[in-house]
Amino acid sequence: MKILIVGGGGREHAIAWKISQNPNVTKIWCAPGNGGIARIAECVNIKATDIEGMVKFAKEVKPDLVMVAPDDPLVMGLVDALEAEGIRAFGPRANAAIIEGSKSFAKELMINCGVPTAKYAVFTDADEATQYVKEQGAPIVIKADGLALGKGVTVAKTEDEAIAAIRDAILDKAFGDAGARVVIEECLEGPEVSVLCFTDGKTICPMPSAQDHKRAYDHDEGPNTGGMGAFSPSRIYNDELASVCMEKIFRPTIDGMAKMGRPFKGVLYFGLMITKDGPKVIEYNARFGDPETQAVLPRLKTDLVEIMNAIIDEKLDEINIEWKDDAACCVVLASGGYPKAYTSGYTITGVEVAEEMKDVIVFHAGTKIKECCGMLQTNGGRVLGVTGLGATLDDAIKCAYAATEKIDFTDLHKRTDIGIK
Ligand code: AMP
Ligand code: GLY
After folding, report:
1. How many other β-carbons are positioned within 10 Å of the β-carbon of residue 190?
2. How far apart are CA 337 and CA 216, in angstroms?
3. Which range of residues forms the domain containing residue 23?
4. Residue 299 in domain
5. For position 277, what pLDDT does the model report?
6. pLDDT at res. 421
7. Residues 345 and 377: beta-carbon distance below 8 Å
8. Which residues of the chain have a pLDDT value below 50?
């Protein structure tokens, strides 16, 4: 079996790592891939958002399956474009990926299906939005409607901050078209949990819960990042909460999408806030999370290719998905300065030493192999995700951090409190 994976971050490395364990998989391509993925797949220099280029390549090499991992190609309709050429593709079609691509769509869906979420209003006019903020008061949350590379959300502590965020989005077009419309939300409070679910549009199989750490520095301080680490399971997501979420959130969402003629097939990520009134949805993502995937997939016992095929064929009810009891913790090693300016091109040492340690997997994100000498170099903000497994979460955290000690590059930055919250 030949598989093409679309994307090139730590999440895609974890997906490629898992897929490569299937003995029937004889070839993996990854576009664009990275320095770590290059060891298990042929990396192809096509951007994940180059829909035309990706379809052209898939038509040439004829993979048995294309796994589309990132949000933008899903929202842009890569799965639809591949299917139109008769190529089997994993991931939601554009009409379902809109659940992540438009926050106002997601909010309307939640209201129509009775899914608990923050109170909200939608605006395209800056003055009306400002008026609403003045009526509601702060704290309040301003969100660009469309995809904004994870930067479109402002949790404003003051009215002024909220009004500035509205100006940025609507008038100054800081997020381009994605911010022409804004969703303004009530500010909720409580711990956050990510639950990723496999779904074929009918059957829902939640994966073990996870939590990520978005802020750059310890104690959740500093600017928001793509994620500085993740762990699984969450310490607060118990069986009781899981059954409430299935009944009040997961099931109504999947059924609501199907009823609208937008069956969601793929991985649906529920970003939840556990408030004192119960779990509420903060966001939906139409895909595996990054870095949650690097903490969740190592716990999956069942073959991922089998699961993806069952989802495409709408036969998820026919398979049994099994998970290891082990906990997992993924610590991100970033370039100093990230998420703001940073330098790339530094030599990375010690990855092999870390990989030889028991229960350690090193996933690459921003790395590349220098052509002239074959040396591994930094090539992005988030460079590596070091995952440790253990019988308990504390063991997994210790294992991951012990492995990070073996790895070095200039200006390496990591948080020291992943999994501690
Ligand atoms: P998002 O990009 O939608 O994941 O939002 C980024 C972060 O903003 C979330 O992980 C939350 O920490 C925070 N956030 C989003 N919506 C709300 C809300 N209604 N109340 C409080 N915090 C929020
Ligand atoms: N870790 C959050 C995300 O993947 O969007």
Report:
1. 16
2. 9
3. 2-93
4. yes
5. 96
6. 67
7. yes
8. none
Q: What is the DSSP string of 250-271?
A: IHHHHHHHHHTT----EEEEEE
The reported pLDDT for the residue numbered 158 is 94
Paired tokens of 306: 């089998």
User: What's the pTM?
Assistant: 0.96
How confident is the model at residue 175, as a pLDDT?
86
* Same domain flag for 181 and 271: no
Nearest CA owner, ligand 2 atom 3: 289
| 245 domain residue, yes or no | yes
Both tokens of residue 103? 């926050």
- Closest C-alpha residue for ligand 2 atom 5: 289
Q: Between the CA of residue 8 and those of 257, 348, 357, what are the distances in Å?
A: 29, 18, 25
The residue type at 5: I
Contacts (Cβ under 8 Å, ≥6 apart) of 373: none
Could you tell me where the DSSP H helices lie in 62-208? 71-75, 78-84, 94-101, 103-113, 126-136, 159-166
Among protein residues, the one with the nearest Cα to ligand 2's atom 2 is 289
| Shared-domain flag, residues 292 and 358 | no
Tell whether 418 is covered by a domain: no
CATH number at residue 348: 3.90.600.10
Gap from CA of 135 to ligand 2 centroid (Å): 32
Q: How many domains does the chain have?
A: 4
Which ligand is closest in space to the CA of residue 272? Answer: 1
